[in-house]
Every structure is written in structure tokens, then in C-alpha cells.
Amino acid sequence: MGTNTGTGAARGRLRERAVGPVCAVLAFCVVPAGLLAGPSAGWRAALPMTVAVLGALAVASLHTRDRIIPVAATAVAVSSAHGTLFGDPPTLETATGVATLVEITGLLLLVCLVARYAGTRQAFVLCTVLGALASTALLRLQLPPTVLEAAAQSSFFALGAIAAAATGGGLRALETRRIRAVHEARRSQRLQLAGDLHDFVAHDVSGIVVLAQAAQVIGADRPEEVLPLLQQIEASGLQALGSMDRTVHMLRSSDGTAPAGRDGTDASPQVAYGLADIVDAVDRFRAAGRAEVRLDMDRSPERTGRIPREVASTAHRVVVEALTNIRRHAGTAPWVIVSVTPGPARPRQVLTVSVTNGPPTSGETVGGRLGERERPGTSGLRGLAERARVLGGTLESGVHGEHGEHGWRVTAVLPLD
């Protein structure tokens, strides 16, 4: 999607660069044409024609400059009004009719451009004036016998101005929706970055907190065990920095999988998380705690390679979030089981991700101290539940167990199609 967006933006910039030279060439052609048409069509018809076409070309090529739209539209309106009110008597000469029709075309094009680029109030006023002039320009060729017929003729030709204004307004609406979509995409990227930092970095930071608390507890009685804990803290800190770098690279990449090189041939390694990263997350969780951790997952490359990238990334995030919440709210859980297994293909094949922990005990100081510092962690599960729904799956969490010994279980069911 990012590649398509970049290609579309490049094409748009190419079109914008081409409009200026094309309009300049046409302007150089219009001026000699107006001079040649003057003797046969009459200068009072050739001059408004030339000004109308030049004004439309000026707005088409220079609409981004301040004041160019009102200045060009005003000049065209004054010239056209002068030709209609103070021009030659109505005539059916061919040259005059052609010049008038070209002028009307220029006026309608200008109405479309003004509706597209001008401010809302400014566009309403200018389009009204220019549309009225375009609908009455034909009165120069033949004046109807009654005022009612003249009004009816002008009203009929005003439909062309209304259509031109509607076209310009439609293009403005499309551009507005495109800009809004870009802003929404950027907002979504920022929210995704925040979610990634919450899921990944918080997992590593919570491990650092557990290790630091353990070092404080055993530091006085068993100082020889502090050094290995400090080494684990260092490794967890480096892992947190690596998670931050990886998340930023995912945000910067063109398609969410690899950083984009200058020529699009950067052979950087894949940075999107997947099933293979679950093993590392579980190992780090096991090393930083005292719980017995078991991982039930087919680690063969043939199996993991068949899982869609978005499903694998979501499965990894579910595991990381669940393990992080166990550290925060059940630091004394005696055992944790992580299961990533394919489900039955009824009615479609799914990947079931489950993280279950045993009931916390009350005798461990480290887990109790961590529990006293709990912070709201359900926002991550809510975000992952929404992500699972987008993929067509479900995510549920709640207590489990019997005989009063209740642990916690998080289960995600993600379709593979």
C-alpha cells in the first residue's frame, strides 16, 4: 500500500510540473490567435476571448500563488462584462460567433478552476459572476425579441456554468477526502507506533523492573548473585533499545516489513515481528522470572513460513502483551504455558494463540512488590482485540481454574485465510 501511495504521489507531482509549461505554450499561442481574429471577429469580441482564455490558463498554472485567482477572475469578468454591455450590436457573423464560443469555453473552464482551488466564499461569489457572464455572452450574437425569452435562454445556458462549478466542487471534495485519508493514515501510524512501544518495550522494561527488585532483595544476603542479575538487566536494556529501533524502522519502511533504500534495492533484514520471535520473548521471560514456562509451538521453518505475515505479527503481540501483564499483575505465578497451534479447519483454518498462567502465590516478595506497582494494562488487550477483529478473528481473556485456584488466560483465534 505504501508503494502504491508513493507512486501515486510521484505521478501527481509530475502532472503538476507539466501543467505550467503546457499552459505557457498555450498562452503564447492564444495571443497571436487573438490578434489574428481581431480584424474579422471584431476587437470587442476578440479581446474578451483572449482575456478569458489567458485567465483560465493563469489560474490552472499559478493557482498556488496568493491573489492570482481573484485577480485573474476579476480581469476576465470585467473584460467579458464590457464585451457584453458595450460591445458591437448583435451579429451572426461566423468569426464573431466562434470568438464568443471560445470565450464561453474559457469562462466555463475558469468557473471549474475557481470552484476547485479558491476559498469557499470566494469561489461562490466568483463562480456566480463568471457563470452569469457565460450564460449571457450569447446575447451578443442574437438578442431574443422579448425579455422573457432572453431570460429563458440565459437560464438554459446557465446549466453549463452549474455543471462546471459542480465538476470543480467534486474535484475539491476528492482532494479533501484524499488529504483527510492521509491524515488518518498518519494518525493510524502514530497509534500503531504507540501500540508497538507498549507491547514490546514495556515487556522488556517490566523484565528490568523484576530483575532490579530481585537484586535489591538478595543484595544484602547473597551479594555474589547480584552480578548475574546486573548482566541480565543490561541485556534486557539492550533488548528494549533494539525493540525501539525495530519499531521505528517499521514505521519508516515503505511496506511495514523493511526499511526502504534510496533506490528501492536495500537488502535490509526483515524487521516485522513473527512467530520466530515468540521463542525469544518466552526465553527472556523465563530468564527474568521464577515461573516454570512451557512453550507449545511448531518451530519448523516450513510451518512458520506458511503463516501470513499480519497473523504472525498479531500472534507475537498477543504473547508479548500477555507475558507483560503476567509480570505486572501475577509476578508470583508458579507456571506459564504459551501455546501457538493451528486449529481445526472448520469452517476455515485458524491459528490459536493461548497464554495461561497459574494462580499467583503470596509468599514471594518480588512478585508482591511488582504487584503493588501495577499500572493499567488492559488498553493493550483492547487494542489487540480490535486488531484481531480486523483480521476476522477473536481475542478473549479471563480467569480459569477450579477449586478456588484461579489463574488467567488470554486466547486469540486468528484465521489464516
TrEMBL record:
Membrane-spanning parts: 18-37, 43-61, 68-86, 98-117, 124-143, 155-174
Reaction catalysis annotation: ATP + protein L-histidine = ADP + protein N-phospho-L-histidine
Molecular function as annotated in GO: kinase activity
InterPro entries for this protein: HATPase_C_sf (IPR036890), Sensor_HK_TwoCompSys (IPR050482), Sig_transdc_His_kin_sub3_dim/P (IPR011712)
One matching Pfam family: HisKA_3
Source taxon at top rank: Bacteria
EC number: 2.7.13.3
Signal transduction histidine kinase subgroup 3 dimerisation and phosphoacceptor domain segment(s): 190-254
Stretches the record annotates as Disordered: 355-379
Polar residues compositional bias, start-end: 355-364
Record keywords, A-Z: ATP-binding, Kinase, Membrane, Nucleotide-binding, Phosphoprotein, Transferase, Transmembrane, Transmembrane helix, Two-component regulatory system
Protein name according to UniProt: histidine kinase
